[in-house]
Design a protein that fits this description.
It is a single chain. With about 90 residues, the chain is an all-alpha fold. It has one domain (about 25-85). Helices cover about 85% and strands about 0% of the residues.
Length: about 90
């Protein structure tokens, strides 16, 4: 265990940040999953709304440093590609 006050504080801060990041990551994954499920359906308008929400969630998580920016870009690109194929 920690032997210094600063190390004890660092442990408290790390735990608080871990819980905060976990909450955001879990919410992001839920929204992204809903977007992917909507893309498998037939309703293009509903899929468009879900994909828009998923994109927002991914970008927000990337801006907070919870996931890498390029991972968010890649996921958004793939969802938009599937959305465009569904629309045409």
């Amino acid at each position: 265990m920690a032997n210094h006050k600063s190390a004890e504080k660092r442990i408290r801060q790390s735990e608080k940040r871990r819980i905060h990041n976990k909450r955001i990551r879990t919410a992001m994954r839920t929204v992204v999953k809903a977007g992917r499920v909507a893309l498998e359906g037939d309703d293009a308008e509903a899929a468009r709304e879900k994909v828009r929400a998923a994109e927002s969630s991914l970008r927000r998580a990337a801006s907070k440093g919870i996931i890498p920016k390029r991972r968010a870009d890649r996921a958004v690109s793939r969802m938009n590609k599937r959305l465009n194929a569904l629309g045409s």
